[in-house]
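Now for a sample.
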Amino acid sequence: MEAVEIRDKYIKFFESKGHKQIPSAPVVPENDPSVLFNTAGMQPLVPYLMGEPHPYGTRLCDYQKCMRTNDLDEVGDVTHHTFFEMLGNWSLGDYFKEESIAWSFELLTKILNIPVERLAVTVFRGNDIVAADDESANIWRKMGISDKRIKFLGEDDNWWPNMELTGPCGPDTEIFYFRSEDEIPEEFDPEDDRWVEIWNNVFMQYNHNEDGTFTELPKKNVDTGMGLERITAVLEGVNDNYTSSIWKDVIEKIESITGLNYEGNEKAMRIIADHIRSAVFISADPSGIKPSNTDQGYILRRLIRRAIRYAKKLNIDINSNWEEEIANLIIEKYKKYYVEVGENAQVVRDVLKNEKVKFNRTLEKGLKEFEKIASKITDGKMDKDNAFRLYDTFGFPIELTVELASEMNIKVDEEGFKEKFKAHQELSRAGAKEKFKGGLASTGETETMYHTATHLLNAALKVVLGNDVHQKGSNITEERMRFDFSCDHKLTDEEKQKVESLVNEWIDAGYEVTKQEMSKEDAINSGAECMFIEKYPDVVTVYKIGEVSAELCGGPHVENTSKLSHIKIKKEEAVSAGVRRIKAVFVK
């Protein structure tokens, strides 16, 4: 069963259960401080999971563009991807465990025709704070899952987001598939790699209070997620995701370009396929991300440059239009589902080509740096620091450094390099973990204030700089707000002062913040500002701040601008061509 059919069947099934399909949000999140990218289907729905009413009601479903980069160096094996699509369905204070589990089981066994004997599940075993999730286990038993296929695991495996974070939380139940031609064991062992997780149903049942106690939520939510890449591979009976219908034509294109077979060149071809696809979606995003040395731009640059390195390993002529051929194929595959991919096709091609040209120059610099390092070596050994510098600064994979060194009878401290590389990975993952604190935990009182202030900042920039200014992204923490906007010049001190004064004037005016639901067409015709029009459903929520601002938004917001402190612009800088960034804080 091909991915296209799975997508359609998933949406149709949940529509038959009273769910409304919502559009996929952009890859780059709007007003979410917790991540650089949307890493899960639930992230764009955080305001509604926190209690904001959704204009489409209490039962929702979608397929969502997602990016995860904390395992970037794992890409190249049979299962890891940076960009992926997540199928999701939600209950916002509507149905709960009974319906969620029953419908998951029905979809898997009746619609997707997975044999029951290939399924197993995990549930939360409880601890000294919260009881075991016997309710979910009993529902699974009613579905026909035997006790030997139900495993109770601890909070690390079956609790979301984690026991430390305050706010909405709860147990989850994960569904596993036996992905092997071996005889299916009678008893499910979660440590057995032949069992792969295919779906996760999170039950937001409790509130973790500031005093450490857990209390039942009056309105409970369900949040589910199933990766399209993984379920497609499962249903097509392949153990290598890259041989499924999602990737087959892309791999064949790379085979055609290289004149090589996939077999024997799997790692390089997987990395090229994955990274070019991810680069297509990031650079096609309405937020206008370009390769850079910070944030999303840094990830985009890493993806393109890593793809180029592996293209070189396959002896691709880097100066040919190889990356454009692959990108064009991906654009054609996805533009039906994600319109921005087609609309921004030329932007994608330009980003890939420009970065390729820049990286070729960097590689030349790296070769000169290598020669400089090698010329100073007197004992025939290159230390780990120089090897890692060539990797980190000039993009030299260790294999290239070893190969060049061996030609000069120089040995490289590969073990030392691996230690430094591992420490670098752990630091990156720690950073990623810090970035993603659970989404729902990042909408406290201060963040709500900063979120409202971004509306005022956006309006002030339009007054001072003109109506061509549009929001390109924002990032909010308890300490500050960061706001990206379209602008072709560095702001003068006078412009910054005018913007700051205008925002503070509106704060002092005590404007009421109101919200109204209307059709998307009416909202746009009324002049309401919108960052990513494609992501909004046909019925939208418009937040108005007096006569100062009107924006399509999901919240959260304060009720009156008098609740806000004055802001102070601390920094204004370039992000990429035509995009500027303001960092501002509240001052008492």
